[in-house]
Specification:
The chain has 70 residues and is mainly alpha-helical. It has one domain. Helix content is 81%, strand content 0%. It has 5 helices and no strands. Helix 3 packs antiparallel against helix 4. It is globular, with a radius of gyration of 11 Å. The N and C termini lie far apart (29 Å).
C-alpha cells in the first residue's frame, strides 16, 4: 500500500461523521471505506485486497477515533 493511499484512508476517516462510522458493523465499515476510496481513485485488485485486510485489522482504531470525536 502506498503512502498516498494510506493518507487518503485516514483523511477519509477523519472527515467522515463519527456517527456514520460508529453505527456500521465491521464488514459494512470496511466495505464503505473501500467504496469511498474506489470512487476517489482507481484501485487495482491487489491494492483493494491489501487495503481491505488493513482496514479489517484497524476497525477498532477507526471506532476509537470516531468515538473521541462524538
Amino acid at each position: 500500500m502506498t503512502p498516498a493511499i494510506m493518507r487518503q484512508v485516514w483523511e477519509l476517516i477523519e472527515n467522515t461523521q463519527a456517527s456514520m462510522l460508529l453505527r456500521q458493523d465491521d464488514p459494512s465499515l470496511v466495505a464503505w471505506v473501500l467504496s469511498q476510496l474506489a470512487n476517489r481513485r482507481s484501485l487495482e485488485q491487489q491494492e483493494a485486497i491489501v487495503l481491505r485486510d488493513y482496514l479489517r485489522s484497524r476497525t477498532a482504531l477507526i471506532r476509537d477515533l470516531a468515538a473521541q470525536r462524538s
